Structures are given as structure tokens and as C-alpha cells.
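User: My advisor, Dr. K., asked me to get a structural model of this assembly before our group meeting. I'm new to this, so sorry if the format is off. These are the inputs:
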Amino acid sequence: MAHMTTPRVRMSPDARREQLIELGVQLLGRRSLEELSIEVLAEEAGISRGLLYHYFGGKQEFHVAVVRRAADDLFTVTAPRGSGSPLEQLAGSLERYVDYVRDNYEGYVSLVRGAAGGHEALREIYEESRTALTDRLFDGAVAEEASDLGLTDTPTVRLLVRGWAAFMEEVVVEWVRDPRGVTREELLHTLVGSLPGILAPLRPA
Amino acid sequence: MAHMTTPRVRMSPDARREQLIELGVQLLGRRSLEELSIEVLAEEAGISRGLLYHYFGGKQEFHVAVVRRAADDLFTVTAPRGSGSPLEQLAGSLERYVDYVRDNYEGYVSLVRGAAGGHEALREIYEESRTALTDRLFDGAVAEEASDLGLTDTPTVRLLVRGWAAFMEEVVVEWVRDPRGVTREELLHTLVGSLPGILAPLRPA
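Assistant: The format is fine. Below is the predicted structure of the whole assembly, which you can bring to the meeting.
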């Protein structure tokens, strides 16, 4: 159950707010943003709606705080780790990305799909998040003298990487929704190869 | 100017409705769906709003009719032509797709972005359109014994092609919005290679 344990010690307002945002992110795993109301959070946290309005001002602000935290989590979770080749590091990041989407499906979908639907602040967080995730690829490419990914920092590559992010989102969301018999290993194998695949036409023949 | 010439002969209601839908599609090239009101259409067509409500019932129905027509147009425009290799035919279709998005930018973006935003009927048309466009790739692959595209009809390939459609939309819309110095030729070269590139990881090593 997502119910929080009642705090035994008096928490600072900031710490309390942080804790409520974390709970919101957790709840977003199994329900869409639309379904995540102040009422739901109040019930799950076992505190009054009035107090929540005190912390967040309103539903909109609450959603923005939760989605921003979820985007930060995704960024942290998918950070390159270890010291393998760029392709091995990419494979690790993608694996954690796939698992993140699987474990936070409803919230992730409502972020990706909802970003297109008019809520300007959420759209901005989504854009920032995608930009941060893809920019990081170029940091890696710069650090690595002889990248085997073909990630040279040119306008064409930037454009293709942006498209690749849309490809990833679509494939992973769709796979989590309905795996169609495609295994996690098959999925990861194709995802890792897709970035060099998309960049292949740029290589000198 | 988009003003229609006043019809000299009495048109049947169906023909008149068709003509108004065509005008709507045309207007969608330079304005978003939100900006395409019954009022705008009435002014451009030089007929009364009352008559338009008679033909379409309301703004919602008018939008659905226009977007459906636009989707049909896109399907027709991007149909494979000629008798080249599958890759040559793909190149031709992509070229016409890029030009279509360029020439119908506002409407196309409001379809793609707006599909995510709650309007269920438009979302359906968008999904149908994308499915029709990608299904056609498999018709071609079946017809061609030795496809050089790697489009065998498996769940994994279907999933990747779905992702590729999202990739295409993102790259082309973004390129039309801001070409960043990437030429149409460079763009087309990378787009044509992206499909075999995405499918490359599935090829036996």
C-alpha cells in the first residue's frame, strides 16, 4: 500500500513537502496525472486537503512539482554508469529506461502524451527533460575520443537524436502496453542498435 | 488567396460540402486546427455561418471532416509510385511526405500534437492514419520477394516501424520548424537510411 507512515518526529515544512512529492511520484506509477488529484493524495497521505493546498497552492502546482520530480528521477536513473564503451553505457541506460517506464507506466504516458495537450508548464518540463536526456549523449561523445556511436555534434545529428528520442518513447511505451511476445532482451537488443542505425547514413561510404 | 470562386452552377449539397472540406484542408496549411473556426471558413468561403452549421453540424464535426480529408490526402500523396527497388520507392514516398509537411505545416502539427490532447475522434483519425501509412510498408515488403529493407512481418519489426513513424514525425516537423542549416537533400538522405538502420539490429550477424 502507498500509505505513508505517520511521521513520529516533527518535520520541517520543506521536508514534509518533499515527502508529499515523493508520494505523488509513487502514486503516478499506477494512475494517470488526471487521476492524481489533491483528494487522492490527501487520502493516501492521511492528511487534510486543506494542508495540501497549503503546501502546493493547487492541483496544477502539485502536478508540476510531481512531474518535475519524476523527470529528475528519470534523469538520475538513466545516468551512464561504470566504465564500459559508449555502446555498453548506452545499453545500461536504456535498460534502466525501459524498467523505469514499465514501473511508472501510467505517469510516464500521461507525461509524454499530455505534454502535447495544452498544459504549458508540463510541456516545458517534458521538453527540458528530453533535451537533458539527449544532451547527455553528446557529453559522452565528446569525452570519448573515438566514439563508436557516431555522435558528432552537428545539426543533423542533433536532429536525428531528437527523432530517436521520439522513437524510443513510442517503442517502449507501446511495448510495455502490449509486449506482443517481444521479450525484454529482444527489445533491448534492438533499442541499443537503433541509435547507431539511425546515424549510419551519415557515415562516409 | 484562399477565397473560392463563386460557383456559377448550382452544386449538389454533397459537392458543396466536399468543396468546403477542401477549402478547410487548404486553410489548415497556414493555421492550426484551433484557429480554424466556422467563422474563418465562412469568411473564406464567402457564405453564411448558418449554412456551414447546416453542412457540418458544428465545429467539432467540421474539424473531424477536414482532418480525415487531410489524412486521406497524405495517404494518397505518399503512395509508392513507379517500379524502382523498395528503397527507391521509399525514398520517393518520404520526399513527398517531407514536402507535404512543409506545405501543410500548421495543420499537420496540430494533428500530430493535438492527437495526444484529449480530442478522441481526432486521436482516432491520427492513429488510423499512422497505421495505414506503416501497414503499407508491409504490403510492399510482401510483394517484393527479396526486400532490401528487412521488413519481415514480425511483432518486433511492427513495433520498430511504429517507433520509426514517431521518429519521422518528430524529425520532419522539427526540420520544417527550424532547418538549422540542414538541407532538404541531407534530410532525405538520412530519413531514407533510418528505416534499414533501425531494423539493422535484427539482421543475423
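One thing worth pointing out at the meeting: The longest helix of chain B spans residues 120-143.

User: Perfect, thanks a lot.
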